[in-house]
Amino acid sequence: MAAARMGAGGVRCLVPDSIWSTIAAHVVEIMLQCAPETEDGSFSLEALSEVSSFINKCKAGWAGCGLGQHPDTCSFVREALKQIHVPMVLDADALNALDPHFIKEHSKGKWVLTPHEREFERLIGSSLSTSENKASVIQEYAQEWNCVILLKGFPSLIAGPNGEIYKNPTGHTSASTAGCGDVLAGICAGFLGQGLQPLQAAVVGMYLAGMASQFYHEAYGGHTLMASDLLLQIPLVLGKLYAH
Fold it and tell me: For residues 220 and 232, what is the distance between their CA atoms, to the nearest angstrom?
């Protein structure tokens, strides 16, 4: 829904068989396609048959939100990414399925990784809490892995594969609630689908998502914010930006 709100035009979602009807009842504007699943309801390796024809017909994609960490699902993520040629946003359990060697080998400058600190620490095998400069750390890995890294936090930091580094000036701590990172991933994917380069999509997407949380806080107070509330703020944010 976040990608659709960004003006992506058409959004397609690949889902495990058993949840198709549930998702279809809640997101009527999104085109759904179901795929084989494991015994716990996450994607199985058999779902690979759907991936290439499904995603490579799109201009961009994203993966990770709610995938789960079943061994077959993790294998599915890795094998799927080998087949996908469009820019991708990778979040949550998509990141949990990867390691630095895989990212470096397959990213090719087309991926936006959106980890929070714990997910990033797992990838690099060390703690960010001991680092005096988080910006220099993600800058180093973005260059080494040839990808964009959006490290979620307050403030969020974004590093590009050519050494670029950005500190996001927008955002409110209320956006640390469950699901807000999923909305951010969808926003970034929506921008990728409209032709922005991965670094541009990450920078603009994080800025806009941060503004959405600020708009909500100013109107209602931050403690009541849920991820779906951000979706309703996106048109207001875009309207203000376009007015200027």
Answer: 13
Counted residue by residue, the chain has a size of: 244
Name residue 202's amino acid: A
Q: What distance in Å separates the CA atoms of residue 157 and residue 173, rounded to the nearest whole number?
A: 15
Answer whether 212's CB lies under 8 Å from 230's CB: yes
Q: Which fold has domain 2-238?
A: UDP-N-acetylmuramoyl-L-alanine:D-glutamate ligase (3.40.1190)
Both structure tokens of 154: 């307050």
Global pTM?
Answer: 0.95
Per-residue pLDDT of the chain (244 residues; tens, 9 = 90+): 999 999 999 999 999 999 999 999 999 999 999 999 999 999 999 999 888 778 888 999 999 999 999 999 999 999 999 999 999 999 999 999 999 999 999 999 999 999 999 999 999 999 887 667 999 999 999 999 999 999 999 899 999 999 999 999 999 998 989 999 999 999 999 999 999 999 999 999 999 999 999 999 999 987 899 999 999 999 999 999 888 7
DSSP string, 122-135: HHHTS-GGG-S-HH
